[in-house]
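ugh finaly. both done.
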Amino acid sequence: MAPIEISDSMRRAFADALTLLFPIECAGCGLHDVALCDLCRAELLPEPIVQETASGMRVCSGLAFAGVSARIVRAVKEEGKTATLVRALAPALRHAVDDICALSAGTSPDDVVIVPIPTSRAAMRRRGFRVVEMIGKCAGLAPRRILQLTRATVDQRELGRDERQRNVSDSMRASTAAGTRVLLIDDVVTSGATLDEGARAIRAAGGIPLGAATVAATPKWNEGEHAKRVGR
């Protein structure tokens, strides 16, 4: 049977019909008929922020979690809009990974084990996917699930710094060979408490946490007294 040829006008009509049935809009600004417009995509160009957690671990974030970048991260995490947006966020994470490796005596990402902060069971049930692992794979990384949660924690969005530290204290364990050099990754850093807990678990298992990389850093992280700007 010969293939059916579809004219350009028919394709456009079909696309228009789909748009009517399933309207899309830019996750960054609401512009119609596009998942991510060019102006909002430009807002995702990496502008690395390098700081330290309360324990002194270096963390590099590709973006500030504000405005367009915050809306896009939320669209991925809370609305499941992954097809276009995950790819758009990947360069920010990759840039952060490359920068933190360069700060660690010129280490290459190929010379370390990339370890994501684990997704809670509740978040996995709600979303159906692991956000930072998906972004990491789009960034050309090979995340390994070395960290596991040992107990449930509460949602940290409304918690202060000290409350966050208590909330995640001793909540993770790691399965890694002694001497393994590890780089932690996560989507957003707010206080650094979760990353510090991941690093503690890595050290307890004999691993060596070199630092952490995240897609974005919140204003709480950028302005907090516990975080320090680090010269590059």
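ok and the 2nd:
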Amino acid sequence: MYRTRHFIYGLIALLLMAACQKQVEHTAPAIRARDSVAMMTSYGVNTLISDSGVIKYRIVTERWEVNINKNPSQWIFDKGILLEQFDDKFHINSYIQCDTAYYFDQLRIWKLYGRVRILTKDGLRFMSEQLTWDENKHELSSHVFSKLITPERTLQGTHFWSDEKMTRYYVSNSKGSFEKSDMTGSGASDTLRSQPDSVKGNLRQRATPQRATTIPLMH
């Protein structure tokens, strides 16, 4: 971009003008907003993460910014994020993805926005445009329209709450479809039952295995 002929000619002209004039000290205004400087910015991340020597997770994101100067400090995934978890045979058994994510590391809170999609190991699917994950309270919540699809039923509503394992959940202002046994009271409890689910991930480029601590979002 900066090697174009127009830029070179302009630079030469600027240097010639400076040589013909009295030297003047030029100073740029100081950067006062320290939160404009990120500690780390990574691009094209596609990494496998191991736990006790076994590959358990994959993290894929186009841009990962770590900014400890912001108040509160945060990780920023403004180009989207995909987190996958593998079983012992390296099959994808759960995932989380969204268009934008923020992780406030000191507060231990995740904020997910835009096409939030979750699949759990028990076969529950969650869809919404916003989700908050509070690691301190071990709970998930959303105050916008959300949809849950379990092996037994489908629920949707404008307020959602769940424990972080999504085995207990609550949807208000809801509507949904139920099995007949749910209406008669002869069905199982609201705790999710395990259900095999085939999920084929798009592996895209080969990832680089790394040893790291547990991903906060998928423990």
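summary for the 2nd one i guess: The longest strand covers residues 54-67.
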